[in-house]
Amino acid sequence: MRVETCFLFDLDGTLVDSVYQHVLAWSQALDEEGIALSVWRIHRKIGMSGGLFTNQLLRETGQDISEDRIARLARLHADAYGRLSAQIRPLPGARALLANLTAAGIPWAIATSGRMETARVNLRALDVDPERVPVVTRDMVKYAKPDPDLFLAAAEKLGRGVETAVIVGDSIWDMLAARRCRGLGVGLLSGGYGADELERSGAVRVYEDPADLLKHLDEVGGRR
């Protein structure tokens, strides 16, 4: 019996060139709250859930992070990201990759650790309408990556078992989540993580960006 493949995509750094805008937005938010954290340390946290982000802040800064402060940081980040939104662009080949899957009749969905408040900017850059395409954001699940909830919910929206999914992401948090829900993790280098890190976290294949993945779709079951 043939397994019908579906694709589940992360958003930031996977389909949209927005990782470093998020890093700068978080840096500005943390600065406004008087929390000192090196920019490279912020980059290592992009893609994880807000709760895990906060826990790591506690460990690395030793500061008390109250619920009110968490809410303020989220608002400051969203405001700063909004100011950078004009810089957001689809990654090379992202639109063509999604169009190719659609033309081939292969279902796909987007699952992002970002809330819709910031994800909407990225979706607009991709010309993806969340009213017509299955999109799962942090607002819709209990836990975000590295928990698998986002990908499980996205597969459910497609009416597919997550074990039939090719899960495409740019961070170790995507690959860990894919591994936990038994999806097939495929890594992209376009978010700044190295191939060795992605492979250690569970990626079975690693490509440069969406354009490179499109050239090799047949290697991961992306054909009809």
Fill in the CATH topology of the largest domain.
Answer: Rossmann fold
Instruction: Give the helix proportion (percent range).
Output: 40-55%
CATH superfamily of the largest domain: HAD superfamily/HAD-like
- Largest sheet, spatial ordering of strands: 5-4-1-6-7-8
What is the makeup of the main sheet? 6 strands, parallel
What order do the helices and strands follow? Answer: EEHHHHEHEHEHEHEHEH
Structural class: alpha/beta
Radius of gyration: 17 Å
CATH class bucket of the largest domain: Alpha Beta
Task: Give an account of the 3D structure.
With 224 residues, the protein is an alpha/beta fold. It has two domains: 6-18 and 89-220, HAD superfamily/HAD-like (Rossmann fold, 3-Layer(aba) Sandwich), CATH 3.40.50; 19-86, DNA polymerase, domain 1 (Orthogonal Bundle), CATH 1.10.150.240. Helix content is 45%, strand content 12%. It has ten helices and eight strands. It has helices spanning 19-32, 39-43, 50-61, 67-83, 94-103, 116-126, 149-158, 172-180, 195-200, 210-215, and strands at residues 6-9, 16-17, 89-90, 108-111, 135-136, 165-169, 184-188, 205-207. It has a six-stranded parallel beta sheet with strand order 5-4-1-6-7-8, sandwiched between helices. Strands 2-3 form a two-stranded antiparallel ribbon. Strand 7, helix 9 and strand 8 (205-207) form a beta-alpha-beta unit. Helix 1 (19-32) packs across helix 4. It starts with 5 loop residues before the first strand and ends in a 9-residue tail after the last helix. This is Sugar phosphatase YfbT. Its EC number is 3.1.3.23.
